[in-house]
Write a structure and sequence with these properties.
Blueprint: H1 2-7, H2 22-46, E1 72-74, E2 77-80, H3 82-90, H4 94-99, H5 109-114, H6 134-155
Antiparallel strand pairs: 1-2
Helix pairs in contact: 2-6
């Protein structure tokens, strides 16, 4: 009787007929860990920091409102960049502000904002190619974690 149950995947030593065999449970837990780590990695990469958008920033295009470094040197805030200073200086005259070239890169602020570029950063300008996307980073990270877990599994044998 015991041998028949053991062949069917029941482990009688650990809790009778409730538990699955140890190798099956390990595979399930490893798969769950890989899935959990992938979800956490994607969540971290896609998470946008909580921030308050000042009333004057409402004039920015929607895709640029979540980036403090449109007007600040760093994305966490702090000192203003050249566009932030111009925005403070010429904020009432939006048409004039959009025609200016705050970062002296040869492109008007309005042109840079229209393409979701940063008008206070001379290295950011319309027409530049985008780098690797967050989704690609998440996929690569998921693959690396999966391969690492598989390597650990085979090294333990």
């Amino acid at each position: 009787m015991r041998q028949g149950l053991r062949r069917e995947g029941v482990n009688l030593r650990r809790g009778g007929s409730r538990g699955l065999t140890t190798p099956t449970r390990r595979r399930q837990l490893r798969g769950l860990c890989v899935l959990l780590l992938t979800v956490v990695a994607i969540s971290i990469l896609w998470a946008e920091p909580a921030q308050g958008i000042p009333e004057y920033a409402k004039v920015l295009p929607p895709e640029m409102k979540n980036f403090c470094n449109v007007c600040h040197v760093k994305n966490s805030g702090g000192p203003l960049n050249s566009f932030g200073e111009d925005f403070t200086r010429y904020g009432e005259d939006l048409a004039g502000l959009m025609e200016r070239d705050s970062d002296s890169d040869g492109y008007a602020n309005g042109d840079e904002l229209a393409e979701a570029k940063f008008p206070g950063n001379p290295r950011s300008f319309p027409g530049e190619k985008k780098g690797i996307s967050n989704i690609m980073i998440a996929i690569i990270l998921g693959v690396v974690v999966s391969v690492a877990l598989l390597a650990i599994r085979f090294l333990r044998r």
